[in-house]
Amino acid sequence: MNRGSSHVTILGGGLAGSLMTILLARRGILVHLIERRADLRSHPLSGGRSINLALADRGLHALKVAGLYEAVVPLLIPMSGRMLHDIDGNTQYVAYGQREHEVIYSVSRNGLTQLLLNHASRLPNVSMQFDSECVDVNFEQRELSLTQHTTTSVIPYQQLIAADGYHSVVRQHLLQSTHSDASDDLLPHGYKELTLPAGSNRQHQLAANALHIWPRGGFMLIALPNIDGTFTVTLFLPFDSNDGSPSFSRLHDHSSVIDFFSEFFPDALALMPNLASEFLIHPTGKMHTIRSTRWTNDSNAVLIGDAAHAIVPFHGQGMNCAFEDCIELDALLKQRPFAEATTLFARQRKPNADAIADMALENYIEMRDTVRHPKFLLQKELSFELERRFPDRFIPRYSMVMFHHAIPYAIAYERGKIQTQILDELTSHANGIDDIDMAIAGKMIEERLPKLASVL
Ligand code: FAD
Fold first, then answer.
1. What does the alpha-carbon distance between residue 241 and residue 237 come to, in Å, rounded to a whole number?
2. pLDDT per position as a tens digit, 334-390
3. pTM greater than the 0.85 cutoff
4. Closest ligand 1 atom to Cα of 18
5. 165 ligand 1 Cβ < 6 A
């Protein structure tokens, strides 16, 4: 792409598409962005669908690379740990990291996307087209069919970057045209977004600098702060159950919703006067893991973000991973022609996308269940101690994923498995950190975990 070809069409003006637009346009490339929805800057997304997101080091790093860090900071609320709420209303704070900068940030999806679109629109070589849904792709002719209101038109493209989300039309055509396939695993749990209003003077009614979790074993409630003093609360729950345990199918009217929250989340219910009416209006969302065997046609089209690899939201990494895609693809496009860069991108990136997909699924069990157990807390404490003693070899897996953008997901995943074994062995007969023999711990770590610098 650095040699000659200089016109890129980006499909999808969500998080990944708008950041990719900025990265390419800043290098002088002509970018045409096409988005199905109306312009989000004048038509923000309505409630009920992933209102805020956790932004972590990988996403922040990508925003820094794009020169947007200062612009984004006012949108961010730091969350330094999890606040666990038990059924009796007691809370326990568990820090995410052990250094001051080891925090994640709550950010509004609307606010962040609007900021990216604003920055993109100010670049002279960017054109944007809203209310235009891609319904067909012809890779041989390099053409997109777009529906705008009731009319369909065909437009040419030179190179296509598809950031059209987890339902990606481009992915479907890519798989057909290359006789490839993708797995689409629907989680049997859904989610419902609700609002915990601000208190008087627009104050947060719960601690603002934490991600709140009400873990209940088979399901959970979480809450992330917004800058207007509200929290976005999300219930994750099975769609159905045949053994009488709670599920969305049982929450069908005002009283069943209130009864359920009174039984399992009484402290949250007390702060949410409109809970039942919101619950019955807001959609119940689905969560997918999509693993596509192809991300590119090795010629003129490539998938990024959820279009390539949708994951469940429990590690708070879908957007972070999508942003990382953008900077990795951009770095390759700086050096190589489009076809070569995109083929290499897909080859390098897929193992990392697969790793975070698995870790995201595992994290659901941690958040809704394991986090309540004393063994989890002991292993968390021990992990921090081992990180202090052996910082070049042992970094807790959560920290590798959330605070270390230089460590690829696949490496975090592999080292995480070894670390879990070490932690299990060390804590198998321990009741507290003082029961652990640090000399043995050191020996295990030296034998099993090569220095990080040597594997990066
Ligand atoms: P999207 O954001 O889905 O953008 C796709 C865009 O393409 C949209 O604007 C869409 O309108 C447009 N489009 C789609 N089809 C077409 C078409 N045919 N023609 C034209 N345009 C089209 N990630 C995190 O990092 N942290 C979190 O805390 C987090 N929490 C989440 C909570 C929930 C409940 C969910 C569901 C997801 C969460 N995620 C989180 C994941 C995150 O939302 C996604 O990974 C991220 O939005 C992916 O960005 P994207 O640009 O690839 O796709």
1. 10
2. 999 999 999 999 999 999 999 999 999 999 998 998 888 999 999 999 999 999 999
3. yes
4. 51
5. yes
